[in-house]
Write a structure and sequence with these properties.
The structure holds 2 protein chains of 2 kinds.
Chain A (H helix, E strand, L loop, with lengths): L1 H21 L8 E6 L5 H12 L3 E6 L4 H9 L6 E5 L1 H10 L6 H6 L4 H4 L9 E2 L2 E2 L1 E8 L1 E5 H7 L10 H10 L2 E2 L5 E7 L5 H7 L17 H15 L7 H6 L10 H6 L3 E6 L4 H4 L7 E4 L9 E10 L6 H12 L1 H10 L13 H4 L10 H8 L2 E3 L8 H16 L5 H22 L1 H11 L6
Parallel strand pairs in A: 1-2, 1-3, 9-10, 12-13
Antiparallel strand pairs in A: 3-12, 4-5, 6-12, 7-10, 7-11, 8-9
Chain B lengths: L1 H35 L18 H7 L2 H13 L3 H15 L6 H13 L2 H11 L6 H12 L2 H7 L36 H14 L2 H11 L3 H9 L4 H12 L1 H17 L2 H8 L10 H11 L3 H29 L3
Helix pairs in contact in B: 4-9, 4-10, 6-14, 11-12, 13-16, 14-15, 15-16
């Protein structure tokens, strides 16, 4: 028995030694940097270019960490050197938790003036209370993808923007096709439900009041907007319901879901960004076009930005800054545009002949549309007085009920606004600095 | 005396690594979480740390989400009696002296050592409303029975296969947001889907192994005596097997209750993200959400201690009631 235990112990020691030896390490003389971002295939090219331009670094991707994990890792002193924020509310969480490094002065020293150089809509994800915490990796404003082959088959002309949702609906109805049993075999329109804030903006509504002090998602404009989105599914039947979506379900992973439904010809039009090309290019001979998203009362389009932050507690934070400088440079921004990973965040790099006509993809003759729609981009409303995750949980629950046709839109949005405002009141009770800010802003101690 | 002291030192030497691990990684964090539950600890640094003593616990009592998610947790435990009964039936079947019985036992135990996430993804596909295996069978049966036309001819709204993980409906007709029965909520939905899957996983799992061991330990003379007295199979089961398995059943019920109250996290994370509309969010998943998504560490710690207290009380009740029934 003793021999067995000794042998097992020896074997485990040996395996540990082997694991230690084969653990991936940065080559000698190189500084390792870890970047938490998503698993978009384009990320590999962006990392390879950085490592080529900066041979002194060995940058690696950590694709599996969400915001909550990054914050905990950073506060525990084992965080990545760089990580991405997806939207203003995530930036706020990183700043308030202390994980984000204020890089205002560092970027200024390196001659980078974000306010002048990047698309204005991107600043909501990089600047908080006048201080710079991140550099935008890219910016996306969605438009309507069209499958030209399906339009040709239906004998319908390709739509041209700007256009209204009424005009859009007529086209979508013509392009929704049913089989002999009356089941829909091709949808006129594919759209992820999380696009609802764009509809709210376009109908003249808001999620929060402009100062962020109150949730106003129960306004008549917001209700009308979500009702229209709901009707696209349940009244006009041009957009798949959750049950239809589940039926079309494909394998998971980055770029799955609506993109793959569209790529496999199950929808004639789809709401999506230029970054869809990172996946759609792999579908082969898709005959694609792009047109500006329709508008309602206002010609506003929802913009969203990914931005890279530096971990305040990283022992290599000075070196990590070089990555932000890289993101501000021509090589990176040209690569973003070539890869079609949305649109380059630095404005001037989008005004090049290469942006309009990528020699590797001459069929993509619609890039001007992507550049134009960014001008109408507006970031999501957010409130500094509530944790973004808490607000999302509340809003998602109510929107889930609407999406599944289990609660009338007005009732769901009224409940959503009430619950979010209650949560704002709770946050103010907890956080004296926010309470003071709220009082200065509104003259009240809590939401009405 | 000297040799006893020597033995004690040796024993402590052997125990120390485990004890240190237990103190550092189990007892320490558990005590720490108790301390934290009396504070407002929040990972946002703008919220100053304060001792709020019973504040989190009182807030919990007023938290409608906590009440809903407790109800979800209890609802998902409704499958426990079925799982226990199924394990027992399976164990009795697999204790027969048949050729190749070891192969059967291994096959039924397979789900237990298959990765949970893989199983859940498989079940997610089975529950697909259009192409899933369940609805393929249900739709065929409904077609053959002309059920839809029949219900419509009787003035009903028709009948269709359930949408499983996408639906807030349930067998009790509970509403998604309030603790009350709501119109149109009766049916099969996400909660029931998780129960069915849970029962399937549990039937062939460790409970079955425990029952197999229990059945094997029943003295053969008791069974033979009953047979000599002319008892049939059912009488033998009712008067010999079942009483003899009482300690095993007691252990399984206690452990299943503990597991059920702590459960639901993996399913929610992999299959439903706690939806639709929070109907598959359990207390365990809510603790995770509060701590690691909303960063309210103090509140999450209080939730954990409430859960612990509930488990402790229920286990004590089980113990009191169950131990009275055990005569050996």
């Amino acid at each position: 028995m003793r021999a067995f235990f000794v042998a097992a112990f020896g074997a485990l020691m040996l395996l540990s030694l082997v694991a230690w030896r084969i653990e991936p390490r940065s080559p000698a003389g190189k500084t390792p940097l870890v970047w938490v971002s998503d698993d978009n295939p384009a990320r590999r090219g962006q990392i390879a270019l950085f490592n080529k331009l900066h041979p002194e670094y060995d940058l690696r991707l950590d694709p599996g960490s969400g915001m909550e994990k990054v914050i905990l890792q950073c506060l525990a002193g084992v965080g990545p050197d760089l990580f991405d924020a997806y939207g203003p509310s995530q930036l706020d969480s990183y700043v308030r938790s202390g994980a984000a490094w204020d890089v205002t002065d560092e970027l200024a020293k390196r001659g980078i003036d974000q306010a002048r150089e990047v698309w204005p809509a991107a600043l909501a994800t990089t600047v908080r209370d006048g201080r710079v915490y991140a550099f935008p990796t890219n910016i996306a404003v969605d438009a309507i993808w069209i499958n030209k082959d399906l339009f040709d088959a239906a004998g319908d002309p390709y739509p041209k923007g700007p256009w209204t949702w009424d005009a859009f609906l007529r086209v979508a109805q013509r392009l929704t096709l049913r089989d002999d049993r009356g089941r829909i075999k091709q949808f006129g329109f594919l759209c992820d439900w999380w696009y609802w804030p764009q509809f709210v903006m376009q109908w003249g509504g808001r999620i929060y009041s402009p100062d962020g002090a109150r949730c106003v998602v129960d306004s008549p404009e917001a209700i009308a907007a979500v009702q229209f989105m709901h009707d696209l599914m349940y009244k006009y039947h041009v957009m798949p319901t959750p049950v239809d979506e589940a039926s079309m379900a494909t394998q998971g992973g980055w770029g799955s879901g609506t993109i793959s439904y569209f790529g496999t010809g199950r929808g004639a039009m789809a709401m999506g960004g230029r970054w869809w090309l990172c996946t759609l290019r792999d579908y082969g001979r898709l005959n694609l076009g792009v047109v500006e998203s329709p508008y309602a009362k206002r010609r506003i389009l929802r913009s969203y930005t990914r931005a890279t932050l530096v971990n305040r507690y990283s022992p290599r934070r000075e070196q990590a800054l070089d990555f932000l400088v890289y993101e501000a440079g021509k090589a990176y921004n040209d690569l973003i545009n070539r890869q079609a990973d949305a649109v380059a965040a630095v404005i001037r790099y989008n005004y090049t002949p290469e942006f309009l006509h990528n020699p590797e993809h001459p069929e993509e003759d619609y890039n001007e549309v992507w550049r134009e729609v960014v001008k109408y981009g507006r970031p999501d409303d957010w409130s500094p007085f509530i944790n973004g995750q808490t607000a999302t949980r509340i809003l998602d629950k109510q929107m889930d009920l609407v999406k599944n046709d289990q609660k009338p839109v007005p009732e769901a949005l009224r409940d959503a606004a009430r619950l979010v405002n209650e949560e704002i009141a709770k946050t103010l009770d907890m956080d004296p600095s926010l309470r003071l800010k709220y009082y200065r802003l509104t003259g009240r101690e809590r939401p009405e | 005396m000297k040799s006893r002291r020597h033995e004690l030192r040796a024993a402590l030497g052997f125990l120390l690594p485990n004890l240190l691990g237990f103190l550092t990684f189990t007892a320490g964090p558990v005590l720490f979480s108790l301390v934290v539950s009396f504070s407002n600890w929040h990972l946002h640094r703008t919220i100053p740390f304060q001792w709020i003593w019973s504040g989190n616990f009182l807030a919990l009592l007023r938290d409608p989400q906590f009440i809903m998610y407790s109800l979800n947790t209890i609802y998902l435990m409704l499958g426990l009696p079925l799982a226990v009964a199924g394990s027992l039936a399976l164990a009795i079947l697999l204790s027969q002296r048949l050729r190749g019985i070891v192969v059967y036992r291994t096959l039924f135990y397979l789900p237990t050592f298959t990765a949970g996430v893989a199983l859940m993804l498989l079940w997610k596909a089975l529950y697909n409303p259009e192409f899933g295996a369940f609805n393929a069978v249900i739709n065929r049966a409904l077609d053959l029975a002309h059920a839809d036309q029949l219900v419509r001819s009787l003035g009903g709204a028709g009948v269709s296969a359930p949408t499983w993980l996408l639906s807030t409906k349930n067998l009790w007709g509970l509403e998604a947001e309030y603790v009350r029965v709501g119109p149109g909520q009766w049916g099969l939905g996400a909660r029931d889907a998780l129960i069915i899957m849970g029962v399937w996983i549990a039937i062939g799992g460790n409970n079955m192994l425990l029952y197999l061991a229990g059945v094997a330990n029943i003295p053969t003379e008791l069974v033979e005596a009953a047979q000599l007295d002319g008892a049939g199979r059912w009488a033998i089961f009712r008067n010999v097997t079942w009483p003899q398995l009482a300690p095993t059943t007691f252990f399984i019920v206690v452990m299943s209750c503990i597991g059920g109250l702590q459960g639901g996290f993996e399913q929610a994370r992999v299959m439903t993200q706690g939806g639709p509309a929070g109907t598959t969010t359990t207390i365990a998943y809510y603790i995770y959400t509060k701590a690691f998504e909303e960063f309210q560490i103090g509140y999450a710690a209080a939730l954990s201690w409430i859960l612990f207290s509930a488990i402790f009380v229920i286990t004590m009740i089980n113990w009191r009631l169950g131990s009275k029934e055990l005569s050996y």
